[in-house]
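Recap from last week: sequence in, structure out.
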Amino acid sequence: MANNKFDTIKKLERPLLDLLQIKDTYQIERITRVLNSLYETLKKNTQYWKHADSMIELTLKLSTRCQAFAQELYKNKNIVRMIE
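Predicted structure tokens:
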């Protein structure tokens, strides 16, 4: 995600959603890894508003479509503060 341009992030939405919705014993671990990557990418790209906006949009879409992702996002106060 960090190496892609802002307009190609939308292409990552469907594969990430499919990956996060797999209900198995590793679902929370995958969600945590994605959240950590999102946070690191947002932190690195806050000066590029288009890229940051695309990342925020991706995060919000994932949280509305995957309840487990939304619950873990709520627990991660760093990302929530950064989005605010």
